[in-house]
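Page 47, continued from p. 46.
Same chain as before, 129 aa.
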Amino acid sequence: MPGPYIFAGQWPAKAYSPDEVWYNYRMFALKNLILALATVLDWAIMIYIWIVIIRALISWVEPNPYNPIVRFLHGVTEPLLAPIRYYLLRSIVRSPLGIDVSPVILILLLMLVRAFSIPTLMELALRLQ
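Result:
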């Protein structure tokens, strides 16, 4: 025998088994978790894009390499910019003026990831009702 039933506030009353109620709570929590992860990922990508932009702007002047802010910007962005630079130097695509275009490519890639992942996570969360 399945145990007591919980009645929702509907008329006519619909009976939910305890297993259905527990399943609904879990799906509600999972939906909210995925929505929160999508929001955090969206903010993180936007902040990282701004960090890349700031690093590109700072590179136009002669920054002090011992400045903690410059070291932070370099340390945070270099792991993603270095592979892009490596593949650009190996390929035919080179800047005719000697300008480093790897920040632009990285920003475009981050915008692509953002445009794909955030709506996908939001849609996944909304289908979990």
